[in-house]
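Researcher: Going back to the complex we discussed earlier. I've cleaned up the inputs and rechecked each line, so this should be the final set. Can you rerun the prediction on the complete assembly and write out the structure?
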Amino acid sequence: MNSKLSAISRHGWIAWGAAAVAFLAAAPALAQQFTGPEYGEFALFGLDRRGAIWIAAQLHLLFAAFVLGVPMFAVVIEAIGMFGGDQRYDKLAKEFTRLLLVAYSATAIWGAILVFFLSTLYPNFWSYLTGIFAPSMWLYAGLFFFESFTLYLYYYGWDAWKKGIAKKFHWGLGIMLNVWGTAVMFIANGWLTYMMSPPEGVTAETAPPQIELWSAINNATWMPINIHRLLANVVFGGAIVGAYAAYRFLTSKTDDERAHYDWMGYTGNFIAIGALIVLPFAGYWLGREIYEFSQTMGITMMGGFMSWLWIIQAFLIGILFLAGNYYLWVGMGRIPGAERFQPYIKWMLLVLVLGVIVWATPNTMIASRDEIAAMGGTHHPFLGVLGVMSAKNTAVNLMILTTFLSFLMYRRANREPVVAWARAATMLQGLAFAVCALVVLAYGIWGYFVEAIVRIGFSVYQVLAVLVTILFVTALDVLMLRGARSRGTIRWGHMPPRSQYALLVLAVTFTWLMGLMGFARSGIRQHWHVYEVIRDTSEQAFTPALGPAATMISICVALFFGLVGMIFWLGGLSEKSADQPSGATAAGTG
Amino acid sequence: MLRTNLKILFTVAMTLAVFTFIANVIPQVQSAVPEEIEIRADMTPDELVGIGETLYFGVGGCTACHGLGTRAPDILGVAGTVCATRNPGQSCKEYLWESLVSPVSYIVEGFQPIMLDQSRLMSQAELWTLVAFLEAQGGEVTVGPDDFAAAAAADEAALAAAAEPPPTDPSAVDVMGILRVHCLACHAYGGQGAMVGPPLEELTGRSYEEIERGILEPNADTAAGYEPFAGVMPTYYGDQLAPAELEALIQFLMEGGAPGGSTDGSVGDDAPPGEDRP
Amino acid sequence: MNLRRQPIVQAAVVLVAAYVLFEYVIGYGLPLVGVSSAPVPQTVILQYMAIVIVGVLVYFSADEARWKSFMQPVRDTLTLPDRRVPRGLLMVAIPVMAGWMTYQNVRLSFGAPATLRSIHPAPPGEITFRGEPITLTGLENPLRSSGSMEEHIALGRSIYTVNCVPCHGDRMDGEGHFAPAFNPVPADFTSGGVLPQLTESFVFWRIVKGGPGLPTEGTPWDSAMPAWENILEQHEIWATIIYLYEQTGFSPRTWHEAEGEAH
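Model: Rerun complete. Updated structure for the full complex:
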């Protein structure tokens, strides 16, 4: 019955036995340090203490991602409008900044709830954290103040600083907004990565004042998490913009509105998928750092009790790729000239479906006894080949390449290059795709024959090959389409509603994926508040199985979209009062 | 308008429902907290008994033999009452402690001396919780803080000893220590130890090779009178003892206790604190 | 109307073909041509088919015209007056199917439930060997840096021959003469999925603690592997590990580039 009482605890026992006497002797001194109760009680809405902190933290994070991702989006869009001279972009950027104002309060409210929950439900742990991080918390508050103030300037100054140098200054404000926001996120990341990977030498006996602040912040997983979250916020920002556009598209009453929101949805989706393509790169880095930090933690994450989480993740990413491509393919229906690419769609779809199948093939299969006996273990003798990293990396890289091809076709659909070398360049592009696919496949197959450390290096080469191809082909495409003849304008707004539902599914899936990965990141600490330093001694110290975790994530995502829906609605409300006179014609013709 | 909103709501809710459903239909694995039981000297008898119970049914592996009725006595429910009557002059606590750390010292009628010295599997503090648990089987728990104070010291010493490299100089070997740890569970020497195997004094004067073979290949032949116990002696001493230790031990047995350290052959002098106290 | 051009028929053909591929070609067809394979677990087939169904729907709804002609038979069956009979049959068939599936799900069966057993569970950071604590994290095989490799291999060979062959087989392929009796079957060391995926400290832990020492996610641990700590010495286990890698030609997994090259 007791495999749990295995190795770790065995040694623990001896140590405890030995420490018992020492502890008794030192008890009076220690007793004064920890006076309050170790944990506070919580029992509302059927939630326990962990459920409460889970929801508060997750919603705070989602809104924080919103107010970090959307300004990135806004500032890029404003720049496109400013340098490209298209007023549509400027209007779009402002529309989003208006949503930010409400989203900021939501972020702050959930942040306050989180802090109150932490300090009342986990008082000892909270005082431990403040003992180490107090100065950075003050800095955090200061930066948050600057950030909010910059946002107010940015939004309320939009129409005042419209022209010339003032517009540039205004754009600079937008950049500052992002700088403050990113700095705030980096600081908060320092706290949570400390919980995952405390610096070497920190033990349960180390008193908080003895831990140097910078070493605590700059721990093994800090930078990887920073980069990973930065990129993910761009994805998230784009996805939320897409969802907003889809919502407004579906509830639009005029063709002009539909045209505007169709275009906005396309832009949001473009940014989201574009950033998603580089996200795995940051993910590998983070995973590698986790393995470097603690192999036990790494195996718990990838091969231990969390291994099934990655199958769910594969399923979600499969949905993202399929939905993203689907949106593009449906969108081709509104582009004159896109018909000529129709025959390729089924082959691209085939690659995607095969890719998802490979990616979702579990390494350890769920099987009944008879099936296990027939397979000779939980590894399938044939499909097992698809269950390992080499196959999965190859699959996902080919899926990325296919998605890029969809974008390229979409871009090319209504344009006809006029330059003389267009045919040669197109063939060169095709060649680049073919070479890249071959390189990815070759490394994938070669990966079966080398040891793990080399194989991990291969995944980097595969991603690099794809990135280089994307850059090269894009550059060629831009040059080639200079002054291209149009086959007809895009009929913005002429989209079947199901494409908009695809955008909604994309946003929900992104958000849910963030919740799931957050569970993975924080769950691999298992029964530790600070990994192998501060033990979780509450009754919720166990790490829940995927089912209960998924239920919690769904609750958080539903709450988030409920609140975001309200923000969207508020945005529409103020628009009605403010923009009524100028009318809805600003959407332009596209 | 309302229809569209409901459709949107439905799409979001269905997406969430599908994800939640999939995550719930796969077999669920929850990562439990490894049980780390803190043994403190100031615990109440009930707490000690609780820990002992966990050990008894868990890592202690006691139920592999006790309770089956054939290999070892069935002790649940009775250990606390029979313990005081087994060995006249020993208190219940002393008897139970001895039966854990030197199990073959007293063999219950009708059973074989097969039980291992449990102090090699568990810490002394853990053993005391087992004693408490066994006392509670029909008797009164008398294990107290004093027992744990000594146990903690013994555990620390054991940890320190495990970290030391094996000796390389035969003359520096603590032969009495080896006898105590490895031999006296079965063999008698200097009036101490058990009678599963022949008394070690009988080896005095035999050749080095003969004794070496007796240790390394113990079951090659069996001394007269000990046939029931043939094959009991473990074969792993060649691995457990460092070459220097083996050499010192054989010299010691050949000469009947001459070289190095304690020549008087008394074992009790430097017995560990855990053993001489009860 | 030409049936072969009817999208809904095409979709059905694709789905049936995919099912035949997953269930029969992979499970039973491949072994006929000499590729090692086995029937695919139901859960995996379900997963694959779900993906294929999504793919089919994506294909037929990506183009407006195609989607219309895909839905046409559905719409016709549900609305046209002369389709009353098939419509009625559908109205009966769909609930009956749902009922049948529900029945299949809830009826008592005698098979053990499908289990999720992680084949490579996370090792603890620290274990005890006969009570002596050993830190596994970052632990290297001590014998690789001391003594003669030939001696280690010779020792490992003799230990493997005496203790391991009955289950793991003399060819190290997990086909020892006891093997067929066990479920899960003994590990196949010649497989690329075992030794090269593991660090030596992981292998050490598995030998020392055996089946009983598997953590919860490695359960149900009906693994017959004994905990060897009570039988073998540490250096013997390390020597056996060296022998395992030497004999199979694999290199242990390492996490540092420099060490990776050193092997």
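Model: Worth noting: Helices of chain C lie at 7-32, 42-61, 64-79, 84-106, 149-168, 200-209, 234-248, 257-262.
Researcher: Good, that matches what I expected from the previous run.
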